[in-house]
Every structure is written in C-alpha cells, then in structure tokens.
Design a protein that fits this description.
single chain, globular, Aminopeptidase, alpha+beta, binds coenzyme A
C-alpha cells in the first residue's frame, strides 16, 4: 500500500487518543468485526473493558472513533491484547499514535518488556509492529481459533 504523506500529515494533527468509555464499545465492535477473521465477541470486549480499562484507549478523528488499542499487564510484563484501525483510516498514523500512548502508559507503570501475538499471515501488522520496535522471539502453534499459528513478538522499554 502506498501512503499519501501529505494526507497523513494533515490527518495526524486531528488524531485524539483518550481512554475508552463503556458507550464506545458498540463502535469498537464494528471496527473489530471488519478487522479480524476471528473477531472478539461483544461480550469479550465488555469483559476487557471492565478488567483492562486503564490500558484501553480509542483514537478519534473529528469526534469519530477510528481505532482502539487494548493492553494488559501479566506477571509484570506489558501485553498488547488487540489493536485495530477502521480500514478507511489506515496508513495515516492512527495505529502508531495508539501504540505510543500505550507504551507511555506501560513506562509509567514501570514495565520493562511488552509482548504480543500476531498471526503468521498478517504481514501488515508484523511490519507495523517491527516499525514500533518489536521483534519476533518465537512461534506459537495453533494460537488462533481457526488453527493459525502466531508469532510472539517482544519490545524492551
Ligand atoms: C496494523 C494496524 C493497526 C496499523 O494501523 P495503521 O493506523 O494503519 O498504522 P500507521 O499508519 O500508524 O503505520 C505505522 C507504520 O506501520 C507500517 N504500516 C502500516 N500499514 C502498513 C501497510 N499497509 N503496509 C506496510 N507497512 C505498513 C509502516 O511502517 C508505518 O510507518 P510509516 O507510515 O512511517 O511508513 C492496521 O493495519 C489494522 O487495523 N489492521 C487490521 C487489524 C490488525 O491486523 N491488527 C493487529 C492484530 S495482531
């Protein structure tokens, strides 16, 4: 995909990242459904909202939610549970802004390592994570419900 650098620059100025609210979940679910082959259910998103509120952010452009990121802390390690951007708004820096805010939050919590899983077929997300400083440290067999493997990726803060 080619990026229009000027468009990205203009839109970047309007990206607003904030913590999630319960009323955002319907819109987040829409983005979830269009973004993943095996999306989280609405119930799972509600559960993540209740248990991970402090690490759950949305991105807005002109008041519209265009993406989200969900983090978690497990055994003193940061974890990226999920990230997705509305397909109409990809390639404009929204994912990068979301990840930067979550990384900042992890740093404030004195987290030293962040991990995530990404489908072996999801080359765009792998490129994105590498750009954000993650590197693959292993492969997990049958990680997804559809039987696909995941790469385990890690970033040191
Ligand atoms: C992965 C995803 C969140 C990236 O969000 P985004 O807002 O499009 O990404 P950004 O515009 O912030 O891009 C940041 C960097 O990622 C890389 N990148 C993003 N999209 C890319 C693409 N289509 N092709 C190649 N590199 C890409 C680039 O290196 C880019 O940096 P650059 O703009 O300086 O070149 C988005 O593609 C998405 O929602 N995908 C579907 C859901 C998904 O797969 N989530 C990850 C599950 S593990």
């Amino acid at each position: 995909m080619e990026f229009d650098k000027n468009t990205k620059k203009d839109i970047s100025k309007n990206i607003f990242i904030r913590l999630v609210q319960r009323t955002d979940l319907r819109r987040i679910y829409e983005i979830e459904i269009e973004s993943f082959k095996t999306p989280y259910s609405f119930f799972t998103l509600q559960t993540l909202f209740w248990f991970n509120k402090e690490y759950f952010y949305v991105a807005e452009i002109d008041g519209k939610i265009v993406g989200y990121i969900i983090g978690d802390v497990r055994n003193n390690r940061g974890h990226v549970v999920s990230i997705a951007v509305d397909s109409q708004y990809r390639g404009k820096g929204v994912g990068k802004c979301l990840m930067e805010v979550l990384i900042k939050k992890f740093k404030e919590t004195n987290i030293k390592t962040i991990r995530l899983e990404v489908a072996v077929s999801n080359l765009i997300a792998q490129t994105f994570y590498k750009k954000m400083g993650f590197r693959a440290i292993g492969q997990i067999k049958n990680y997804y419900r559809n039987g696909e493997d995941a790469f385990l990726m890690e970033k040191r803060l």
